[in-house]
Predict the 3D structure of the following.
Amino acid sequence: MDEARIEHIARALCRAARIDPDALIEGGDDVLYLHSATPGVNGKPAWYRFLPAAKSYCQARDFLSIDSLPAAKA
């Protein structure tokens, strides 16, 4: 998977949660967002929390893409 694409989606999810994606997390915390994000890790940017959700989205989109379906037999 394209890491830049995953980061872009993670940043978008972070902005959707009204969190500044570039803000550094100060100290670890136990906040989980919709069970698809990781807790904050000290020194990481806020968008890092949304990596699992972004990866899941990319995997699902790639799996369900019309281009990836097998060709129909005529």
